Amino acid sequence: MASEERAPVTETEVEHQFDELDVDAPRVGIVMGSKSDMPLMEKAQAELEERGVRSEIRVMSAHRDPDTVAEYAKNAKLRGLRVIIAGAGLAAALPGVVAAHTDLPVIGVPLTSKTSVAGGLDALLAIAQMPPGVPVACVGVDNARNAAVLAARILDA
């Protein structure tokens, strides 16, 4: 019996085959610096859920756990994430640190706290004023829902 010779499959063809698979991996990562931010950031998760977008939610501090944040951001794309929403208050370093370790789109949510300056202006400026080469989109103060809407639009683009 003569065996049929098949043309070799290229890496690009294999990648496109995986694009068609519907896996249960989350597409949006939602991170925040403190457990106290959870009620506000859960609004992003609820909005994504309403839109049928899978997400995951984690608490990690850019100041207390910088290695955890870096590992999360570096591995996010490999795990199937396509956008990361990062909520933070005060110095609001989390969105910028995440963006420094991934090429995925990062959406920053400035959050208020009882020690915020001018109703969250400190966090808003910290997130909006990223250095060149470290882009972070920024939504309004405490507006995690808008971050989810923006993430869904990025995924549809």
Description:
The protein has 157 residues and is of the alpha/beta class. The protein has 6 helices and 5 strands; from the N terminus they run αβαβαβαβαβα. The chain has helices at 11-19, 38-50, 66-75, 94-100, 121-128, 144-156; strands spanning 28-32, 55-59, 83-89, 106-111, 137-138. The chain has a 5-stranded parallel β-sheet with strand order 2-1-3-4-5, with helices on both faces. α5 links the parallel β4 and β5 (137-138). α3 (66-75) crosses α4 (94-100). The longest helix is centred in the first third of the chain and has 13 residues, at 38-50. The protein is globular and about 70 Å long. The protein starts with 10 loop residues before the first helix and ends with a helix.
Averaged pLDDT? 90
Q: Shape, please?
A: globular
* Contiguous uncertain segments of 5+ residues: none
The secondary structure category is: alpha/beta
Question: How much of the sequence is in beta strands?
Answer: 15-25%
Give me the side-by-side strand order of the main sheet: 2-1-3-4-5
Helix content: 25-40%
Major beta sheet summary = 5 strands, parallel
